[in-house]
Amino acid sequence: MRKVILLVILCNFQSLFAQNDIEKKISLHFENSTKLEVIKRIEELSNYKFYFIEDWLDDKTISGNYNNVNLPILLDKIFNNTLVNYYITADNKVILTLNNLIHDSLPDGFFGDLKENIAEYEETSPVFYNQESSLEKSVVETVRIGKETKESLQKNYKLTGYVKNLNTNEPIPNLAIVVQNKNINALTNNKGYYSIQLPPGVNYIETKALGIKSLIKKVIIYNNGTLNFNLREDSEILDEVIIEANQERNVKEALTGVTQLKVEEIKSIPLVLGERDILKVATTMPGIKTAGEGSSGYNVRGGKEDQNLILLDNAVLYNPAHFFGIFSALNPFTSGDVNIYKGNMPAEYGGRLSSVFEINTKNGNNQNFSGEASLGPVTSNLTLELPVVKDKASLIVGARGTYSDWILKSIDEESIKNSEASFFDIVAKYNHEINDKNNIEATGYYSKDAFSITSDSLYSYNNRLFSLKWNHSFNDKNSGSLIIANSEYRFNIDYDGEIDSDFNLGYKINETELKFKMKYIHSEKHKFDYGISSKLFLVNPGTIEPKGTESIVEQFNIPKEKAIESAVFISDNFKVNEKLLFNIGIRYSLYSSLGEASQRVYAKGLPRNEGTVRDTLNFAKNEVAKTYGGPEFRTSARYFLTPSFSIKGSFNSTFQYIHTLSNNTTVSPTDTWKLSDLNIKPQQAKQYSLGFYKNLNGNLYELSLEGYFKKSKNILDYKVGAELLLNENIETEVLQGEGKAYGVEFLIKKTKGKLNGWLGYSYSRSFVKLDSEFGEERVNSGEYFPSNFDKPHDLSLITNYKITKRYSFSANFTYQTGRPITYPIGKYIYNGEERVLYSDRNKFRIPDYYRFDIGFNVEGNHKIKKFAHSFWNISIYNVLGRNNPYSVFFVTEKGKIKAYQSSIFSIPIPTITYNFKF
């Protein structure tokens, strides 16, 4: 003990002498000199001697002019923004160190109370060990982070960085950053960035991800800093490759009602005509339905088809279907991840009541030229990936087309034989990583459908969209994106009938959005998302013009519509503790209907018709005709009952300022969109949900049980016999009422093993109420009645069994309750004519729907050196030949009422598709 006290006294004396010596003044002027040159000048002008390793000093030049300053002041200026520290001894020696400080005294309280602790010291023998000796034997790179200062007193320091794949130069998401023997870990996000808290000193960090070669680094951290990883793919031959990214997302996240689809997983699911279809697979998940086979719309938790916001790289896709709804308009070869929010929407999204389909196009390969193609009986698909700037920029281009006319012409039925149907779509995405802080993404998409069921009419419609996104990382805590997107949907009817009635009819909607959003990582407890957005709507509701000089059709244009919808939003992912997590958000939206426009004013308390018009208001160009808006709340919470079992609840409120107009039960290409205005109010909804989520056997099984209740108002419906097309006073044909929906959804999913797949079941109801004191505006006596898409029972079973590494068998089974329909229940004579008496609206149902599909999949050989990897899919759609009704309708023929049923596929449809990837 005496030796220790003597050492401390000597150190204090030495420090005292050194302090007296340090007070010597130095005058020095240097310009554009390296640090090594400045150090040599100091040695020449004084009696100081420096000791260091030259590699520690960079070649950057510095300038300065100092008169009569202490040496520490001068050294602080020279080594500012570097990792170099210094220590000045009593005999004028200056010892430079890298990162760390040399201490000449022990901190206060180092020995504690000797009297109280001496017994403990006597009983405990010192232990000496070689820390991580097994790691030291192998070659482990040592990395020093930050610079130790006298103020460095934190218990932990933040290490952040970016992880990328050296083979593709793409970010590696969901990679584990593990600190050995310290129970500290983190995951990279979708952009490859991570953040982790480390104690000061030595830490052994290991990276872990499936298919990526692990790497260990010895990190000595002194302060906050950055460490990037460039990792290579693991080329080991594995018995089985299992992708487990986001494997606990369903249990850990606070958001409810989120469905995530992986495009690679759907390639073996047997679908109609062998076409991989992302959105068709989505309908096998609980809570997502279609009104019928061949319908192009999607009903999510009892909502209408127009209540879904479908986004492709942040741009709206208005009609997501091809070929009468049989195929989706999304190319599976270019699509990356798909997230469907049907419960609690993120605060950045708005404008729809039911759901958000967030579809992202994957980045192209920026290392090597590659591609993927498929050849089927009806469609073909080709996707190419091209490196534009190696390691930095890439382009992916995908194109699909159909050659289905040969099938239609081979059918004996004359009415079908003379029909036509075709489509194509093309998508391209350019991705450029400018540097570690900036990258840009640009996507373009175009699709076109044309079909003719009768010989005198040709229908066509197309989607066009473009988006540009600039991602910027400001620092470790702040990052943001600036997004510009434009979408357009239009359809056209080219009628070529009798020579004096030919015409062209067209419709178009265009929207442009500008959005700025930010992410701020305040701490481990608070992570904020906030931003602002604004979109401009331009609608051409309809134009009809004569075709040819002999046509008697008069040209007619419905006045154009214009509106702007803006919003500000913020949300906080608030981690209260390890068990409780909140996601609290608010969005305030403001909508304005703009001129140039004329708006009718109707008498209050009376039905809207020609006889109740009281005034017509005219609005100049860009003048505000009507404003709507309000707060939208997005709140959800998750609580861990056990580490693999959580309970979640949420509340979601939304506005929708745009509506579809259609006389059909299902979405059709001729549906038009109507903006809210003086007479048509925006739709509103509130949804409550509660769910339980459990993972079993190391995430081998995922279980979820979730219930919801949704109440809505101002839901748009139509009067009996409404005329919607080319009607400039559409408010006289529509009704706005209340809606309610509720249900329970169950999902069990097996993610690994030879047998995998999922079973989804939902019991749900959807009702509409159209009440008024006037009979012409009241439906079903003003009581709630089932909506067109009310299907209480919905069950889907998706299975895949791997026989060997190359051969697998797959099967689907789907069952749904038949949708509601209005039947004739009698007839009566009016003015000498026999007329039909119909039941209350949607009182009956068409027969239940069920379908069984099977498929056999053959992977190509697994040779390492080959031009391409092939994949065969042999499937039979509707193997039982079930004649599922698409619709049931009634026709009066020769005084008698006859019922007809139409079906899309009433027989088994065999398909063989060849895919290859190079």
Automatic annotation (TrEMBL):
Family statement: Belongs to the TonB-dependent receptor family.
Keywords: Cell outer membrane, Membrane, Receptor, Signal, Transmembrane, Transmembrane beta strand, Transport
Name listed for the protein in its UniProt record: Outer membrane receptor proteins, mostly Fe transport
Lineage, uppermost ranks: Bacteria, Pseudomonadati, Bacteroidota, Flavobacteriia, Flavobacteriales
Cell compartments where the protein resides: Cell outer membrane
Signal peptide feature range: 1-18
Organism: Lutibacter flavus
Family annotation (Gene3D superfamilies): Carboxypeptidase-like, regulatory domain, TonB-dependent receptor, beta-barrel domain, TonB-dependent receptor, plug domain
UniProt topology in membrane: Multi-pass membrane protein
Pfam families: CarbopepD_reg_2, Plug
One cellular component (GO) term of this entry: cell outer membrane
Domain TonB-dependent receptor plug: 257-352
KW Transmembrane (keyword) present: yes
